[in-house]
Amino acid sequence: MSDSAVRRAIYTAIGVLILGMMLFPVYWMVNASLQPSGNTLTAGFLPLDPTFAGYRRALSEQGHNLVTSVLIAGGTVVLCLLISAPCAYALSQFRSRWVGIGLLAILVSQMIPGIVIANALYTAYERIGLLNSIPGLIVANCSSGIPFAILILRSFMLSLPPSLVEAARVDGAGLFRAFVAIVLPISRNSLITAGLFTFLFSWSDFLFALTLTTKGGVRPVTLGIYQYLGTQVQNWNAVMATAVLSAVPAIVLLVAAQKYIAAGAIGGAVK
């Protein structure tokens, strides 16, 4: 065996080992969710006697929280793209020194600790009645999703040939119609990338959910799992089943959109 083949075998073995270490918590979560009720933290490495009782209990007790998270994450994606797409296009087309200042402000906004934003929003929400509401959580999640989406979309829109929009304008299309009919379809990959990451940010949000909800009427699944731990310390199969169910939407979206993510991430680098 040649030296290059030996090196490839070693690198492959190291990669498999690292991958196994990274995926082991996910496997243990699934394994624990299939164990009989009781303290599943001491269960074996294989579910020799699997049961779906934990999933049935998780759906009955946490199903409404999953639906709440879907509504919040979906609303965040829609609102975020509606605002960030035209903003990104404007920042990619304007040729002014103020554009650099605006981009710097967007970057600075990403560095503000989430707890600072959450506390400020709590004070404002208490006055306008948005506490314990799905629209309130959507707006809160957009505060971190919109700057990120603008940066992703602008990097791609910088590579769009101006002649495409100019041709549409010559044919009689207005600015808005040219943007909707020309720019958005071409930017599909970057829109999917920005939307997916916005969904993941919103889906996994815990800080805003903990700060901006003081009642049990509106409770995302992340907060539901956190509060679930206090009452289910002897029934970890239900807790782990809830965690598995909460991971399914993110996994499905990542698998379905992986080719668009790769294209959208590198699209702005090629001009």
TrEMBL record:
SUPFAM superfamilies: MetI-like (SSF161098)
Membrane-spanning segments: 9-30, 66-91, 98-122, 134-153, 174-201, 236-257
Assigned protein family: Belongs to the binding-protein-dependent transport system permease family.
Cell compartments where the protein resides: Cell membrane
Major subcellular site: membrane
KW Membrane (keyword) present: yes
Protein name: Carbohydrate ABC transporter permease
Bilayer topology annotation: Multi-pass membrane protein
Record carries keyword NADP: no
CDD domains recorded: TM_PBP2
Keywords noted in UniProt: Cell membrane, Membrane, Transmembrane, Transmembrane helix, Transport
Location of the ABC transmembrane type-1 domain: 66-257
Domain of life from the UniProt record: Bacteria
